[in-house]
Design brief:
The structure is a single chain. With 129 residues, the protein is mainly alpha-helical. It folds into 2 domains: 70 residues, no CATH class; 42 residues. It is built from 7 helices and 2 strands; from the N terminus they run αβαααβααα. A two-stranded parallel ribbon has the order 1-2. Helix 2 packs across helix 3. The protein is rod-shaped and about 85 Å long.
């Protein structure tokens, strides 16, 4: 039960360390199987069913599975950002630009306040001696 909770929470990802697109390693890591046996089952299915059905399913799985995150996902916000990036990289970049612009505006306002002449006079007159 704990394994299924982790799978639904973290998702099924293609491994970045896989041999061919990382599908078998991703499945093995998600279900805590041996990578060797997962690949052996895939090759066995390839030999039994023929080349095209299993190859087609393999590449379909590679298209549907998201790539494994480079940095492990620790919070819900990280998961949300990663999902938005995988589905729409431009949308994620736009979100980061808006966030940067908001921070930039705040810093400029603080800088304007601190460097204003009135700030210096207020500081001189309100000295608690």
């Amino acid at each position: 039960m704990k394994r299924m909770d982790r799978l639904f929470r973290a998702g099924l990802y293609r491994s970045r360390r896989g041999v061919i697109l990382g599908v078998c390693r991703g499945i093995a890591e998600a279900f805590d199987f041996s990578v060797f046996w997962t690949r052996a089952v895939a090759v066995f299915a390839l030999l039994i069913s023929g080349f095209w059905p299993v190859t087609g399913l393999y590449f379909l799985a590679a298209l549907l599975m998201k790539p494994e995150p480079v940095i492990p996902i620790e919070t819900e916000a990280h998961q949300e950002f990663y999902d938005s990036y995988v589905h729409s990289p431009q949308g994620a970049v736009d979100r980061l630009k808006r966030r940067y612009q908001r921070l930039d505006r705040r810093i400029r306002r603080m800088e304007d306040t601190v460097t204003a002449r009135e700030f210096d006079w207020d500081r001189r007159f309100n000295v608690d001696a």
